[in-house]
Amino acid sequence: MKSIQSNIKKAKKYLDKNQCIAIPTETVYGLAGNAYSDISVKKIFNLKKRPVNNPLIVHYYDVNRLKEDCYISSNFTKLYNKFSPGPITFILKLKKKSKISKFVTNKQNSLAVRFPKHSLFRKLLKELDYPLAAPSANISTRLSSVQASDVNEEFGSKIKYILNGGRCQIGIESTIINLLSKPVILRYGGLDISKIEKLLKKKIFIKNNLKKKIAPGQFPLHYSPGIPLRMNVKKPNKNEAFVLIKKRKITYKNYYYLSKKNNLKQAAKNLYLLLRKIKKDGYKTIAVEKIQNRGIGKTINDRLNRASKY
Ligand code: TXA
Ligand code: MG
């Protein structure tokens, strides 16, 4: 308990000084900085080698604090009440008087906002008098980090502090919904879209075209393990790592399991971890067997599809 308090104090100290630190969320680790500070936000872009026209998600403790920066709508309130804190990001209209650094949004008048669930991160947000801009803690286009050691692999000593919150429970990024007009899903994520449709009582349009750039995060190459990956494979090639959704009776050294028994949630949690491990184990290519395209399986397939563009 005492160490939690002192770690949060330490994290706050860095953030107050416009430093970037890594923070745990229930989806993936984030690279966080004060969203009101130009200096902090510029540091995030530099560290990540992220194109300046790819805007950041800003993390809030709750809707009361958000209201200073964004307009909210009835759809937002419905979704917020049901799913926040949790793995959903909302695109909202930015208020003119908002204090959000213009570098966060690349001067656009919309803002991506999220209310993370991880208890340690929530404790930290509660202590701060500014929200935190935090993209996933990885070098641009690479795999997101799902544990402190991944962050360390990505950035090493360039990051001054990692608030260690253990393994991320969901292991895959948040679902993004654009609420500027009619709701549109911009990214598959940790929250199953059918749950959103059920709540709003309508089918929701998905703008997930891999070829056309819609949101910057929809650039085709993304979430890449850094070696070629192919999907829907029945039989791997020689010397290829083979990623399987459930345990096999007869197994081989190159077999990697996403879950014991075809559990898609478990598979999502293990996905990035496994892809990182395969690369470290020295494989030059990855084959993945077909994964059911339902629930969070859609998110897994979306990420594999983008990773396969390497
Ligand atoms: O789970 C998550 O969402 C994690 C954790 C750390 O919260 N964050 C995350 O951030 O995945 P990032 O920066 O890796 O991905 C955010 C995506 C980007 O693809 C970006 O283009 C999109 O959100 N985005 C940000 N602001 C936007 C906006 N105003 N309109 C449309 N898309 C936006
Ligand atoms: Mg990212």
Molecular structure report:
β7 (175-178) and β8 (184-187) form a beta hairpin. This protein has ten helices and 13 strands. The chain has 310 residues and is α/β, with parallel strands linked by helices. The chain has helices at residues 2-16, 38-48, 63-66, 74-83, 102-105, 119-127, 148-155, 193-200, 264-280, 297-307, and strands at residues 21-23, 30-34, 57-59, 88-93, 110-114, 132-133, 175-178, 184-187, 205-206, 229-230, 241-244, 255-257, 286-288. The strands form two sheets. A nine-stranded mixed sheet has the order 1-2-6-3-5-4-7-8-9, sandwiched between helices. Strands 10-13-11-12 form a four-stranded parallel sheet, with helices on one face. The mean pLDDT is 95. α1 (2-16) crosses α6. 31% of the residues lie in helices and 15% in strands. It folds into two domains: 2-206, DHBP synthase (Alpha-Beta Complex), CATH 3.90.870; 229-307, no CATH class. It binds threonylcarbamoyladenylate and magnesium ion. Threonylcarbamoyladenylate binds next to β4 and β5.
